[in-house]
Amino acid sequence: MSIRQKQPLLRVVELVKEFHDGPLVLRAVNSISFEVYPGEAVGLVGESGCGKTTAARSILRLTEPTSGHVYFGDTDLTTLSRGEMRAARRNLQMVFQDPDTSLNPRFTVRRTLAEPLKLHKLANGGTLDTRLLETMGRVNLDPEFLQRYPHQLSEGQRQRVGVARAIITEPQFVALDEPTSALDMSVRIHMIALLQRLQKELDMTYVFIAHDLSAVRALCNRVMVMYLGTIVESGPTGEIFDRPLHHYTRALLSAIPIPDPEVKRQRILLKDEPPSLYDVPKGCAFHERCPDVQSGCRDVRPKLRDVGGGHLVACEGI
Known about the structure:
- The structure is a single chain.
- The protein is α/β, with parallel strands linked by helices.
- The chain has one domain: Rossmann fold, CATH 3.40.50.300.
- The chain has ten helices and twelve strands.
- It has helices at 52-59, 82-88, 99-102, 109-119, 125-138, 155-167, 185-202, 213-219, 237-242, 247-254; strands spanning 10-21, 24-36, 41-45, 67-72, 75-76, 92-95, 173-177, 205-210, 222-227, 230-236, 305-306, 312-313.
- The strands form two sheets. It has an eight-stranded mixed sheet with strand order 6-7-8-3-9-10-12-11, with helices on both faces. Strands 2-1-4-5 form a four-stranded antiparallel sheet.
């Protein structure tokens, strides 16, 4: 059975997250909808500040969404009490971008990994030790590191601890928030290989948030492109990278370096800077920077529509 013949594991419906600053309203996530299927790895890409991390945090209710629904199986996470949501997090985990701030500096690695197991009553005594050693092996960390504190680890080792903490409860869904961005190139390559292996071994379902588009291509079955809080294009990874349709996606992909010095990519430079999320333009949010803007783009916000093969694009000019 293919991934898309299954029922979605996660279904996001018209999700909105607003932040209020006095009379000003910043809409970081602007009514996004999508599905993630069991065993699927989905990339979420876009410029800094486009709402990727806020979307992930809102889905997991680490930040409370303003409106919309998030269905995990048949359960609407937005309706759960705080205690019910705490219990649900056994199956919903997140790897954060910066392990320096996400790991408690006063906790040893052992305590960091043991806490979620104890919280969800998944292991104790000898079974706890077995689970800790098994998880350390999965992320390629020596068991002796269990007695160390975060400051005694390298950046790459700290990020592996962050991954270990997320997978130790054997969750059904993981959000990975730029887990490779703080790493140097050699360590980044090892982290990508680790995530590839874990996805196969554990049949992980995850959303991978990243600036590193080469990592997204290596890791993800499908890609969603976000601009000013909205999803403007999504589809199978190969289709998006080889046949991008939205002008923003084309510009984003044109910035990927090509390892062959003999090959020159034509860089697409967009005019101006992205508008402020406090003042998103009416109609298509991209119309002020679009090289092919049409009259209707200024008035009507385009909806995602399928142009074939599960390739969705929000652009009336395509």
